[in-house]
Amino acid sequence: MLIKKYPNTLSMPRACRLFAGVASVAVLLAGCGQKDEKAAPSQVLAKVNDGEITVMQLNGVLRGAGNTADQALAKQNALDYLVNQEILQQKAAELKLDRDPDVMQAVEQAKRQILAAAALSKLQAKAGEPGAAEVQKFYESNPALFSQHATYEFTMFNLPVAQLPGEVKAAIEQSHSAAQTKQALESMHQAFQEKTSRVAADQLPMDLLLQLFKLKAGDILVRPEAGNVMLVQLVRAEGSPVSLADSKERIVAYLKQTAEQESANSKLAELKKAAKVTYLKRFANNAAASAPAAAANGLSTDTVNSGLKGF
Asked: Is the pTM for the entire model greater than 0.85?
């Protein structure tokens, strides 16, 4: 049985995801200020007391929601959402919540986020179509996601300790199954919470997938999790390979998205370098943690943190 210790590399999501929801947030912010002039009758989709829901508001919500098969249902759901929002916005105005300091601060922060995300989106270059060689290289560099794709079943033991006690480590070193690990922990009177999960490779955080990919059934990972220690014991991995042909479209989309993100990061770095930034106080050294294994496979930092959904 193999016990491996790994750091937890999970971090905050990427800043530019904010722009995906700009339209719907903008609709909400519009209600926090003064009412605009009445829209033309042909543009009004619904009325809530003296308030109006317009085509422009609906289109804004739909842009943030993405594509869907049933357009009529999507439009109706978006309209219902706007009606509910208008009802609550009117109640907020009645309660004078727009003058509440916390609400005013939240509105201002949302406005800053929207403007920052819009600027970043405007500055980043549109990525070109990746070539066949680039797609194939990405496919071959990530066997855990494609050619050796699998569904992993593993049992997690969450221990409320900052570090794994030496006697507990010694007790589980001979474990080859979750039942044996549980028995060992109980014999040491070590408190724990147990949970078994079954997750496809593409739904796992990339750092965890790269660790599980190297294990045999019965091996244990030791991972710090929010001040606790998490033991992750692999039960089995059921192979379900994905061919290059079946994954090509999604690889292309991912590579384009990553290129655009790198362009945005580069533009932001240029702007920051040109700006005069002075920290009057720092709270921590927040240098980004590296992920060499994933970087070698052509994966972005966000992929390492949250996984490649959909592969």
From this structure: no
